[in-house]
Amino acid sequence: MNISLKRITSTWIITILLLFFTAIILGITMRFNQGKVISIDDGKFYGIMTTHGMTMIAIWAVAGMVGVHYLLSRYINVGAGLSKFAFIMTVIGVAMFYVTTFIGHFHAGWTFLYPLPFKNSFAWESWATPMFFWSLTVLGVGWLVWSVGLLVAIFKKYSFSQTFAWQHLTKKDPEVQTPPLVLISAISLVGIVLCLLTAVVILVLSFAEIYSDGKFVNDPLLMKNLIYFFGHTIANESLYLGLGIVYELMPEISGRPKFKTTWYVALGWNFTLLFVLTAYFHHLYMDFVQPLGLQMFGQFASYFASIPSAVVTIISIIVLLYGHRIKWTITNLLFFIGITGWIIGGVGALIDSTISNNIFLHNTLWVPAHFHTYNALGNVLLILGFFTWVANEFSGSQTDPMRKLKLALLIIGGFGFVLMFYCGGAESVPRRYSVYPAEFTRAALFASAAAWFAIIYLLGMSLIFVDIFKKCIRVYSSSHSDSSVA
Amino acid sequence: MKGQEFVLVLFLVCAIAISLISFLIYKSTIKASSEDGAGIKNPLKKRLYFLLLWGGVLIIIMSVTIPKSPYFMYTEQTPTMVINVQAMQYAFIMTDETENPTFEIPAGKMVEFRVTSNDVTHGFAVYNPNNVLVTQTQAMPGYVNKLRWVFDEPGKYNILCTEFCGIGHATQTGSMRSDFIVK
Ligand code: HEM
Ligand SMILES: [Cu+2]
């Protein structure tokens, strides 16, 4: 393995975990404010909310990219250059973004729903809105180059139809086998490229409005469709990248035969692309002016998105594990718990994506409830699993200290934290409220309890982080001699 | 049981069942003897059954829930009252056809809210006297969302904002809220 790929991977991991730590602290701060334990002013609260949301979405999207990039180098020829370029762009973009929120007081939420960024200039500095869009531009360019670069590298080794495993649909044992990692990465990368191209359209339309001095105005419904296509897709594809990693590593670590692409795996993941790109319509259920056909398709796509990715993955994992003696390590336990958390969050999502439920759940705490479940207890654990595995690879050390304690803290803290969101949602408490109106008598209690649970989660995370950090930094001191392949 | 309680119970039951299944799978990997060969018999067939079962469940739930979508509600009737709702940073203004402020809505009669905004997107969410969110729609500038509803329970209803609209989004003094009485 290429030493410079190892080093950039290690740099990514340390950066991601430091930002994760910070963003959790911001999350706990919000929950304590909602719980009336501390009191910060509304502008600051929403600045923190915007920073927390954007940081989390950004780091877990790139974390998945870091993982598949590293593992894809087993199958295709891909160096460290793309990853380094994306790293520099990400650091610049995130730094610019922090300037807009912390210094410019920008607080339109990470979804920056049009026309809020343009209609609140008295609450934040007037330069903050354009600078926010410029920071997105820098991030977008970095990630677009990265994902297109990875796709090109895949296409150099596999033909178009082989990449998407179409030969598996017609033949039982085709000559060229597409590894599941390649298939899932390619499917996810195509989704990411499409959503980043949509981001480009959003940026162009936004810049047109900013720099035309009000002569050019956008259409709010169109912008909402574009923004949610972008936001929903990036959040979901991050998860699929995490699953790609699990397909690659779970069997190997558990001492079981490698996963093979079969016709249903191939079919399932090809369909995932279609459903994930159209499920975003569920964000617009409460916009009754949206064409009815799109609303109906939204519920259909949200439901059936669960078949290819979730059901196919669940069965593969059950068949892999059930009744076989497995050597459990922190890595495959994180994968296993992460898959479980992801499915539980998926149930919460399915409930909300039912239009007749959405009318009373839309933008209540039910929404952060389910997406925190499949992120904090799903994707994050899948990626942490990868980090623990790769840290062992970097250091040559297989130590696994305090495994039970770490996992117990993550599970108790994590589920307690999200449960408080679900309870809030069931009591009709709206999301994104800095302080709750007095009539929600238990909302503040739920919030402060959630903050304490999140502290438990943070403790578990920190223990895992320390171990990963200690192992990752060894990659900088190791000599160049072990760089066998470039 | 109101919708919110139902979905919470449904969710918790599913979450506990899923956790239990996971735990049993985990247990089976500890108990298994070292030599291989146990595992699941006929995985391909079982997989097919599971897929068909899940697909069937989804189709059933869809056909039950889709007709209950708000888009199909009271479409055949004419509303007894039309209320124009103008949302703005940070207030809701409700008026009747003659542009007089509206504070009272008849109980048991179908009414139509015509909801729009004159600045950013807001959420128009109606909370009943027990503070349960009963219905909502979005208030988007340049568009009018028509929300039809029948309020059976008399009392004071609150309007809160359910789309993040800026610094005054949460209900504090003078912020996004309004109310009406159902008689
Ligand atoms: C235990 C750690 C975490 C804590 C304490 C936390 C806390 C919070 C809180 C309090 C909110 C605002 C909820 C509201 O009132 O609407 C929030 C929103 C959010 N969180 Fe987290 N969170 C955590 C982990 C995560 C993770 C792992 C992700 C990964 C993607 C994430 C992504 C988001 C996003 C996207 C939002 C929406 C922000 C917005 O509404 O603009 N969070 N979080
Ligand atoms: Cu509002």
Rg over CA atoms of chain B: 24 Å
Q: What percent strand of chain B? A: 25-35%
Secondary-structure element order of chain A, N to C: HHHHHHHHHHHHHHHHH
Structural class of chain A: mainly alpha
- Low-confidence segments of chain A, given as residue ranges, are 481-486
Q: Which CATH top level class of the largest domain in chain B fits?
A: Mainly Beta
Number of strands of chain B: 9
Number of domains of chain B: 2
Shape of chain A: globular
Would you tell me the overall average pLDDT of chain B?
Answer: 90
Description:
The complex is a heterodimer of chains A (486) and B (183). Chain A is built from 17 helices and no strands. By secondary structure, chain A is mostly helical. Chain A is globular, with a radius of gyration of 22 Å. Helix content of chain B is 28%, strand content 30%. Chain B is built from two helices and nine strands. In chain B, a hairpin with a 2-residue loop joins strand 1 (81-88) and strand 2. The interface between A and B is large, with 77 and 79 residues. The structure holds protoporphyrin IX containing FE and copper (II) ion. Protoporphyrin IX containing FE binds next to helix 1, helix 2, helix 14 and helix 16 of chain A.
